[in-house]
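User: Here's a chain of 496 residues. Predict its fold as tokens.
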Amino acid sequence: MTSISQQTRKFPHLRQDFTASLVVFLVALPLCVGVAVASGVPAELGLVTGIVGGLVTGMLPGSSLQVSGPAAGLTVLVFGAVEEYGLPALGVIVLAAGLLQLGMGALRLGRWFRAISLSVVEGMLAGIGLVLIAGQLYAAAGLEAPSSGLDKILGLPGAVVDALGSTEALTSLAVGAGTIAVMVLWKRLPKRAQAVPGALAAVVLATLFTLAFGLSVATVEVNGLLDSVQPPGSEAFGGLADVGMLGTILAFTLIASAESLFSAAAVDRLHNGPRTEYDKELMAQGAGNTVCGLLGALPMTAVIVRSSANVGAGARTKASRVLHGVWLLLFAALLPSALALIPLPALAGILLHAGWKLIPFRGIVSLWRAHRGEAVILVVTAVSIVAVNMFEGVLIGLALSVVKTAWEASHLRLEVVDKGAGPVQAYLSGNATFLRLPRILESLEALPQDRPVELDLSGLHHLDHACRTALENWAERHSASGTDPVKVTEPARTAV
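Assistant: Prediction complete.
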């Protein structure tokens, strides 16, 4: 009894954390396998990343209740990287991304990810969701999906025709649709039944259904945990000389970091415990990705689905996420053959459901009503990711966000006072930037050419070089018409 009481004092929340770890394990298991299969890598590599997320990242400081593992948000990027550079290069890409995250955390750059426009992040997730949905519709039917996001969407009508003409494809689609239906309806069951996560229940029921009726659908290919773990060889590092691979590494780093730290901010709103230390959390993610890279596994991010399940199950400390990694390890070591029974269309159904939740349908409508500019950025980012690729789509979104911010910061007012005699007085106030040049010059050039002008710039808070040069040129042109030189009152303090 004394020993038990001592353990209780040492780990006062062990019971809550133990229970929460089981819930997170049951949520993470089908997602780890599904993300791996959708990424075009062995299913075991998804489990490896989940294990590292629990045992490595879970032990480190940063966010105490956030859970890390393979994320649906990186599926599209991983699939493209594996297709272009091969599976051995994936380890190099993830390793390099992890080291970059460690460096950024050490330089205390983690907090700056909070400055990224939320519309860009939501647009990124929406674009990923669209590509993920399109790709998994092919997987649900047992068909091969085109490589690019745009081709996936454009090829859907042809895929529907092919599926309607194939009994096997229709059977596979029925299993996928049934999986989604179970996940949606599971939330309507009594709370006691919902103790089992809907995704796990859907996969188990789909597996039992296909076995009971002997349905001819593809199942997960099992290679064995040790056979699937292949650290990158020296030849794989030669790809670092490829500019395209360097861009992929940068994309992995930025997207994984942004998703993890935005997830941390969301998790902080779910509990009253210690707040996230963003630089330490970025380093924790970097350490996890470094280990995943060395093992040749999938990249990791913090995952809001698992994290919210962890908080909702009553977790109090990081022990819950560490234990969930232990349960994943035990499953991978003791029951790997169970993976071979899981139908692939069931996993496609889980990812279709996950992709749908990545698209903020209600958020877009409310954003359009309140902030149309932000809504445009969100939609353009999502469409760019589908039409071009992940990295360039995010860059387009960031560029639009910067331009929008600069435009809104360029508040400028021009007041013209013309008393009918004497000089025309023009007062400029606010921020004069190149973005407002067309409006400024159009108004000044409309002033009478045969009258002297007094241009008062003392109300300006900011006057950039482009505007100053343009105003000087206009003053010279106006003075050249034979009138008195334009009299200019300089700002009290000019920022160039």
